[in-house]
Design brief:
Oligomer: single chain
Radius of gyration: 16 Å
Number of strands: 0
Number of helices: 8
InterPro entries: Xre-like_HTH (IPR046847), Xre/MbcA/ParS-like_toxin-bd (IPR024467)
Helix content: 55-70%
Distance between the termini: 46 Å
Shape: globular
GO molecular function, one term: DNA binding
Pfam families: Xre-like-HTH, Xre_MbcA_ParS_C
Protein name: DUF2384 domain-containing protein
Length: about 130
């Protein structure tokens, strides 16, 4: 029985999520220091991720948090129509519905989940 061609060429989840996380952080203007707090790794690890010397490990807590961060980015990106400056401004301004500045809130797991829930609810209205 032949294996499916995509199964051999499909990228491993760790490197894919690592790259997506870095891209989302770049588009949102999130610093290495803040990203490290969001996904629970050191700033040095974020630096190694940028140099492609480290990939998040599937199933690890940083991997799971990175998946949530990318999900948050995708929801926000969809709402702002891909306009990075608007997404960056939204992330940095007080949000009365959330009760905080989203960028400050997403450095905790509960805060990240709350922001995702808020964005998903806003997206559903569109």
């Amino acid at each position: 029985m032949r294996s499916h061609p995509d199964s051999e060429s499909a990228a491993a989840p760790g490197p894919v999520i690592t790259k997506a996380t870095l891209r989302a952080a770049d588009l949102l203007g999130v610093t290495a220091k803040v990203l490290s707090a969001i996904i629970g790794v050191s700033e040095a690890t974020v630096s190694r991720m940028r140099k492609q010397e480290f990939a998040l490990e599937t199933g690890s807590k940083p991997f799971e948090l990175a998946v949530l961060f990318v999900r948050m980015f995708r929801s926000l990106d969809a709402i702002v129509g891909g306009d990075a400056p608007i997404a960056q401004a939204w992330l940095r301004n007080e949000n009365t519905a959330i009760g905080a500045v989203p960028l400050e809130k997403i450095v905790t797991i509960a805060g990240l989940v709350d922001v995702i829930a808020y964005l998903d609810a806003r997206r559903a209205l569109v």
